[in-house]
Amino acid sequence: MHAQPDESPAPDPYLGRRFDVTAGDYHRLRPRYPAQVIDTLCDRAGLVPGSQILDVGAGTGIATLPLAERGCSVIALEPGPDMAAIARRTLHDWPNATVIESTFEGWSLPADAPRFDLMLAATAFHWLDPRTRLDRAAELLRPGGMLAILGYQHCAGGDDAFFAKAQGCYLRFMPGTSPDERLPAWDERPDTSEIDAHPAFALDGVWQWRETFTSSREEYLTLLGTYSGHIALDSGRRAGLLECIGALIDREFGGRIAKAYRYELILARRG
């Protein structure tokens, strides 16, 4: 089933950068963040035109754009050159947004630069080094600034029968697949223990939403090709997996499937 492959810890330190090979498809097919998600982020974090934001693991600028449109001043870090190039095109009309080709760990804020009002990790926090990510976030945020962990995960509520049957394809072609894997409920509360235990942060709140999207066979298979677990497969296994899933969509689901996503926002305030 592999509901949201990107949400698992990276099996090697470079896996998070492999999205670059599918940058165009990633930008075209990855879900956008609904307006209510961005509105809640802006309202709860107190963002106004001119607010200083650091967007880490910005990808192709999917979450960066709506913040730039609201007048925020955004520095977007993205290590993949093709992803960063698309982000620059996406943000071409917004001079208040700057894309820097860098990892979070490899980038330094000039000593005399002001600290940020918000650090955003949109479907990217799990790719940051867990040994240092909260310490670095605390260093880069002003007192009272906010850390926003934004993401989405495949959850129950779409064509769940399809995803249950597709598990057989994953068991055949993706090593490490668990036969007991199930889709999580849309309102399953995230683990915030890392934030709770960190002395620099206080949890501000958790918000969740569910949205459902329908894809054609071609769209869905191309979307799967942008997920890290699928990218990491050797070409033979990947081809077999996509053929197996595509045949299931055509044979039993009329060529289209509905996939439900749980959007999730976690906010923590720096002390």
Structure description:
The protein has helices at residues 23-29, 35-45, 64-69, 81-90, 133-140, 160-173, 193-196, 217-224, 228-231, 235-252; strands spanning 52-56, 73-77, 97-100, 116-122, 141-155, 201-216, 256-270. It has 271 residues and is of the alpha/beta class. It has a single domain (5-270), classed as Rossmann fold (3-Layer(aba) Sandwich). A seven-stranded mixed beta sheet has the order 3-2-1-4-5-7-6. α6 (160-173) packs antiparallel against α10 (235-252) and α8 runs antiparallel to α10 (235-252). The termini are far apart. The relative contact order is 0.19.
Q: Could you give a short account of the major beta sheet?
A: 7 strands, mixed
Q: What would you say the CATH architecture is?
A: 3-Layer(aba) Sandwich
Task: State the CATH topology.
Answer: Rossmann fold
Quote the average pLDDT: 93
CATH superfamily: Vaccinia Virus protein VP39
Note the topology.
Blueprint: H1 23-29, H2 35-45, E1 52-56, H3 64-69, E2 73-77, H4 81-90, E3 97-100, E4 116-122, H5 133-140, E5 141-155, H6 160-173, H7 193-196, E6 201-216, H8 217-224, H9 228-231, H10 235-252, E7 256-270
Parallel strand pairs: 1-2, 1-4, 2-3, 4-5
Antiparallel strand pairs: 5-7, 6-7
Keywords, separated by commas or semicolons:
25% strand, single chain, disordered N terminus, 10 helices, Rossmann fold, alpha/beta, 7 strands, 271 residues
Short description:
It contains 10 helices and 7 strands. The chain is an alpha/beta fold and 271 residues long. It has one domain: Rossmann fold (3-Layer(aba) Sandwich).
